[in-house]
Each structure stands twice: as structure tokens, then as C-alpha cells.
Specification:
CATH topology: Helicase, Ruva Protein, domain 3
Largest sheet: none
Distance between the termini: 42 Å
Order of helices and strands: HHH
Structural class: mainly alpha
CATH architecture: Orthogonal Bundle
Radius of gyration: 12 Å
Helix content: 55-70%
Length: about 70
């Protein structure tokens, strides 16, 4: 039995970008969004969809801090 979820990936990207841009104004918002899209794409098909926003935000923050 397949479980369908209504995950709005654009909303996840928008929220992650907004949160990180507010807490790290020194980072370029377009770069945050680009990295967030890549990070979400890497985990978007995982079986557990409940934490995509948190996981995307954390992975994006980690990558941008390493730059």
C-alpha cells in the first residue's frame, strides 16, 4: 500500500531560506535557496516525510558554514 503525502517542496525551500537568511544575513539568499533545493532533492524521496523542513535546513546550514 502506497502512502501519499502532500509535501509542498517549494514551501519547504521558502521556509528554510527565510529562516537561514534571517539568522545569517551575511549569506546570500539566492545561494541559501540553491543549496536548500539541492539538499531537499537529496532527501525528498525518503520514506519519512515528517522532518523534511528541519533536515533540509540543517543540511543547508552545514554546507554554507563550510564554505
Amino acid at each position: 500500500m502506497a502512502v501519499t503525502t502532500n509535501i509542498d517542496r517549494d514551501e519547504i525551500i521558502a521556509q528554510a531560506t527565510s529562516t537561514l537568511a534571517a539568522s545569517h544575513p551575511e549569506w546570500d539568499a539566492a545561494e541559501i535557496e540553491r543549496v536548500a533545493r539541492e539538499e531537499l532533492a537529496a532527501i525528498a524521496d525518503s520514506p519519512v516525510q515528517d522532518f523534511l523542513l528541519v533536515l533540509t535546513e540543517r543540511a543547508t546550514k552545514r554546507r554554507l558554514k563550510r564554505r
